[in-house]
Amino acid sequence: MKNILVIGATGQIGSELTLSLRERYGAAKVVAGGHRRTPSLELADAGPYEIANCLDIQALADIIKKYRIDTIYHLAALLSATGEKNPKLAWEVNVQGLINVLDLAKEYQCAVFFPSSIGVFGAGTPKDKTPQDTIQRPSTMYGITKLTGELLCDYYYQRYGLDVRGVRYPGLISNVTPPGGGTTDYAVEIFYEALTHQKYSCFLSEDTYLDMMYMPDALKAAIELMEADSSRLIHRNGYNVSAMSFSPKELTKEIQKWIPELQISYEIDPIKQAIADSWPNSMDDSAARTEWGWQPDYNLSEMVKDMIEKLKIKLDIK
Ligand code: AKB
């Protein structure tokens, strides 16, 4: 990995992954590709920044040539709830955007990281310890686009030998860039509301279990998979990666250990609840553990402690 392009660098994963990659490989080696003309100073000042729209194939080709890119982390995508509001746009960005990236990667011989999601599973999938290889009949447009993405990545590997790798991320929790338009977003919102107002109205029911992961583990998964010995990878794409599984009620209890005044109420959003109900409670990630040594660092209590400590500093709360 010599020259890296992160597409979606201003998003929830990209804003932190770009900084981690720059720390690891050197700032000049990692181009942040975002859709904003005014990215955060941290992103734009510490290394190269380019406007990168995955639907603009010529602009992407120019960036790849200019920086002699050999590895692309393609993170730009619409999330599940937004995808249900605008299914055609979700298909356009999540599928056509990926095809553009794969075609360019083929032309310029780049390795590609593609983040899939627990969204690729559906109501017919076993919900507990969801296997790596199982029924995949998603009912959301987001899930359909991510499953199509997994298949496209397999196709480009098998047909053209393109080095494409990817994981199925669970809900991601971060104290840096908030998510936007996801079904698992409650698990981030609750921290901000707990610290600022000591109350939170949750859009999922109290006993909705979902797989979740703290952002440092999500970054570690992406980087370690891309550095893994290719000969050990049997699945290559769509690896289940899991770190913790909890419900809103359990998360609230854990946060109350730090903020006892927190009160939770429930105002269920039927669309988001239906999406969450179609997803696994917890995934079996043994293929990732065996094939490239995946191992998360944070469980629920460690994540909650770190989130509260970091957000207190960010929000200037004593
Ligand atoms: C979403 O909720 O849409 C995402 C995901 C699980 O892929 N966080």
Report on the architecture of this protein.
With 318 residues, this protein is α/β, with parallel strands linked by helices. It folds into two domains: 4-170 and 213-240, NAD(P)-binding Rossmann-like Domain (Rossmann fold), CATH 3.40.50.720; 172-212 and 244-281 and 298-314, UDP-galactose 4-epimerase, domain 1, CATH 3.90.25. Helices cover 44% and strands 16% of the residues. It contains twelve helices and twelve strands. The protein has a seven-stranded parallel sheet, sandwiched between helices. The protein has a three-stranded mixed sheet with strand order 7-9-11. It binds 2-amino-3-ketobutyric acid (AKB). The site of 2-amino-3-ketobutyric acid has 14 residues, from strand 7.
Task: Please tag this protein with its features.
318 residues, alpha/beta, Rossmann fold, UDP-galactose 4-epimerase, domain 1, 2 domains, 7-stranded parallel beta sheet, 3-stranded mixed beta sheet, 12 strands, binds 2-amino-3-ketobutyric acid
Summarize the structure.
The chain has helices at residues 14-25, 41-45, 57-67, 80-85, 87-108, 141-160, 186-196, 215-227, 248-256, 270-277, 286-292, 300-314, and strands at 4-7, 30-34, 49-51, 71-74, 111-117, 164-169, 171-173, 199-202, 210-214, 239-240, 244-246, 263-266.
